[in-house]
Amino acid sequence: MNNAVINFNTDAKLKSEAKQVLDEMGLNFSIALNAYLRKLVVEKRIEFTTPEIPNARLRKAIREGRKEYATGKMKVYKTHEELEKHLLSL
């Protein structure tokens, strides 16, 4: 195997946290980064994900919805057609 060296910059805290996780898994940066690069080559794409944590606006809407539901003020539609008719009237 012909090895090549890749140098890149990253945040010191991120590096430390990643090293801790890799140590707990019994891995090192070379193994993790090679696995990632192999996946990149095979799939020819990079997947960016974010945690599914609702923002302040969504949390407020969820609270309001739960409150409406608990107090019986939430409008319930018996059929899809009823809901569609209501939405189209807005």
UniProtKB/TrEMBL annotation:
- Which keywords fit this entry according to its UniProt record? Toxin-antitoxin system
Give the NCBIfam families listed for this entry: RelB_DinJ (TIGR02384)
Per the database entry, which stretches of residues form a coiled coil?
Answer: none
Q: Short name of one Pfam family for this protein?
A: RelB
Hey, which family's this protein in? Belongs to the RelB/DinJ antitoxin family.
Against InterPro entries, the record matches this protein to: Arc_rbn_hlx_hlx (IPR013321), RelB/DinJ (IPR007337)
Gene Ontology BP terms: DNA-templated transcription; regulation of DNA-templated transcription
Q: What is this protein called?
A: RelB/DinJ family addiction module antitoxin
